Amino acid sequence: MFHLPKLAATALVAASLMVSTASAQTVLRSSDTHPDGYPTVEAVKHFGELLSEKTDGRYSVEVFHSAQLGEEKDTIEQTQFGVIDLNRISIGAFGTQVPEATVTQLPYIFRSADHFHAVLDGPIGEEILAAFDKVDVVALAFYDGGARSFYNSGKPINSPADLAGMKLRVMQSDIFVDMVAALGGNATPMPYGEVYSGIQTGVIDGAENNYPSYDTAGHAEVAKYYSLDEHLMVPEVLVISKVVWDGLTPEDQALFREAAKESVAKQRELWSAKEVESKAAVEALGATINEVDKQPFIDAMGPVYDKYVTDAALKDLVARIQATEG
Hints:
The strands form three sheets. The chain has a five-stranded mixed β-sheet with strand order 2-1-3-10-4. It is α/β, with parallel strands linked by helices. The chain contains 15 helices and eleven strands. α2 links the parallel β1 and β2 (about 60-65). The N and C termini lie far apart (about 80 Å).
């Protein structure tokens, strides 16, 4: 029988221990359409750090930013199938798959950032997160997506009349399409990555988004007019594939939720700073920013609410959101 020398045997045991320790760590892939350094990208990285601490290094997160794994619509499907583990997604990208989440996409449902936070940090927020279970993902936390406003290459928008006939990119969500139609514009659903060239070539006149996106995607270079109608405050949501989630122990599931919730404060801090930075950056590029009387825009939203808030449960949810202090 062959016997290893004692030193070699010791080295072999040590090597096998190193292999088993290395293989004990699970690296989760997370997708984001935004560039490296963007508040949501950095928040998910922070979530990964917290998760690694809480699980003694058993789990870590690698964030694939800049749509490396695909545009949001495609990555949602991949997450549902378990091909992608984690995903930072705008709720708008889920369209109307989750009716409770659709309510957060209603124009002017949130009166301010304070109201937005008061709703999503409370029991209503937990109720909306839980509703994602039905579409094969588990929603862990909400991140800020800021106030979205219209921007275009032609002129300032001061009233709904200024939108008449204007071709505006929206994310691939029926509610966004209907919102633009209610204001007299022509909505063009289009992946985020195609907006710059779309405006540059005249395929579209403009789009709608928050300051950081308007800035970091370079849209201010080709669409100089940014009009602060602030029609939407659509939450971002961090989700994990249900395939992955179901493979976790209840104890680890609790740690995932804990780490996600703790990452929210970091994201909000980064978001506030980025909004200030991005506003200055687009002004330096020569963007014209104008204030807007929002009331005519709010008044035009009746048909959108009538179409999407159809049953008693959703009407109750809207009423509870509107009744929340903040």
